[in-house]
Design a protein that fits this description.
Elements: H1 3-20, E1 33-39, E2 42-50, E3 54-58, H2 67-72, E4 81-85, H3 104-117, E5 123-128, H4 130-141, E6 146-152, H5 162-172, H6 179-185, H7 193-203, H8 211-221, H9 228-234, E7 255-260, H10 268-277, E8 281-286, H11 293-296, H12 298-310
Parallel strand pairs: 3-4, 3-5, 5-6, 6-7, 7-8
Antiparallel strand pairs: 1-2, 2-4
């Protein structure tokens, strides 16, 4: 083979390798490890780990950060290169200059800015709880940018769940497993992160089907204090509400909706509405599971995510 033919052959192989491994030409921003990015006036913290196709994990925006997801979803790192990041005002990511810039729409824009910063085209994104609302909002507003969407025990912002939630709480009020947690719910007056963390520990049993079994496992994953500043900011009067319920048909990505049968805060009825409203979606309900199905139903949960995301 002549020298110019050898060079052309090597170049073709190198090009093919880059195409097959989309992370290979972005060694800095998406290399394994912890990173920071200054995007949209916010100093973001994010972490890249695992191997395989890329999966973005969207954490909630009310101050909890991504630590509980990093620890709880680590099994996925055997099959995916996972990006976790802390939302604005939470954990290791900076606050905006104005607390009024803590809406879900602001965090939807953050996901888009980070996607562009990472040099990614369409992304597969998994969002849990309020993180699901952020991921869903991004898929509604930018359908061409989402390859696949995984929504885990999430609620849309613009649906009034009060009656459903009050009914679920009433059904638990005399159950000794939940009695103390329900009593604590009416006494939220935290002023520091430490007080907010203590409050969350008191009410967390409500988020499980079997708190005696699940709580010790969850406690090992939930290792960082939540931000009371972020919680107060996202609950401030006048913060715009993101419209989603009437726009579900804007989602074009194949969507997997996962919900615990005994989740009171993001109930099965929400999963059913998502499944009905999103054209190409599938609903999976986990028996004897609450708001964190990877804790109470790990095998079926991870099987469902891996099979869907790898299809």
């Amino acid at each position: 083979m002549k020298k110019h033919e050898v060079f052309a052959f090597v170049l073709a192989i190198a090009t093919l390798c880059v195409a097959q491994n989309p992370l290979s030409h972005r060694p800095d921003k998406l290399a394994p490890g912890e990173h920071t990015a200054d995007v949209g006036g916010i100093h973001f913290w994010y972490r890249v780990t695992g191997k395989g196709p890329l999966l973005v994990v969207q954490s909630p925006g009310w101050g909890v950060g991504s630590e509980y997801l990093q620890n709880g979803l680590a099994v996925l790192e055997k099959d995916f290169t996972v990006i976790y990041y802390d939302t604005r005002g939470s954990a290791r990511t900076s606050r905006p200059s104005d607390a009024k810039l803590m809406s879900t729409n602001d965090m939807i824009d953050d996901l888009g800015r980070l996607r562009a910063y990472w040099g990614l085209n369409a992304i597969t994104v998994l969002g849990h709880s309020n993180g699901g609302a952020i991921a869903l909002g991004y898929a509604i507003q930018h359908p061409e940018m989402v390859h696949k969407l995984i929504l885990v025990d999430m609620c849309t912002e613009d649906y009034d769940f009060r009656a459903e939630r009050e009914k679920e709480i009433a059904a638990r009020k005399d159950d000794p497993r939940f009695k103390d947690a329900i009593a604590a719910m009416g006494n939220f007056d935290a002023k520091t992160d430490e007080e907010f963390g203590a409050y969350m520990k008191k009410i967390t049993p409500l988020f499980f089907y079997d708190p005696a079994s699940a709580m010790p496992r969850f406690a090992k994953t939930d290792t960082m204090l939540p931000s009371i500043w972020a919680r107060r900011a996202v609950e401030a009067p006048g913060l715009p509400i993101t419209q989603q319920e009437s726009l579900l048909d804007h989602v074009k990505a194949p969507t997997l909706v996962l919900v615990g049968h005994d989740d009171w805060i993001c109930p099965v009825t929400q999963g059913e509405r998502l499944n009905k409203g999103i054209p190409n979606s599938r609903l999976v309900v986990f028996d004897k599971s609450g708001h964190f199905p990877w804790i109470e139903a790990p095998a079926p949960f991870f099987d469902a995510v891996v099979q869907f995301a790898k299809q």
